[in-house]
Fold this sequence. Notes:
By secondary structure, this protein is an all-alpha fold. Helices cover about 75% and strands about 0% of the residues. Helix 2 packs antiparallel against helix 3 and helix 3 packs antiparallel against helix 4. The mean pLDDT is about 60.
Amino acid sequence: xxxxxxxxxxxxxxxxxxxxxxxxxxxxxxxxxxxxxxxxxxxxxxxxxxxxxxxxxxxxxxxxxxxxxxxxxxxxxxxxxxxxxxxxxxxxxxxxxxxxxxx
Length: 103
């Protein structure tokens, strides 16, 4: 008799990889984080990146936090930090573009 998390023995290797610590949601969330990192590194459209980042953070907070006042407080603070970060990036690249056009 198989003694594990589930009462039956998994027949697929890809399914058995998720049994100990991971779930399907965390598997896709890992690749979503990689996508956001590369998107923010190689893209100048920081507003679109900001919207994508807020959506992904909402997904992560829904997964890892219970709904409480602290949950919404952390969510609000992270949105404000992302807004400040996007404004900084936007001003930096506008200033860089203006400096390059003056030459």
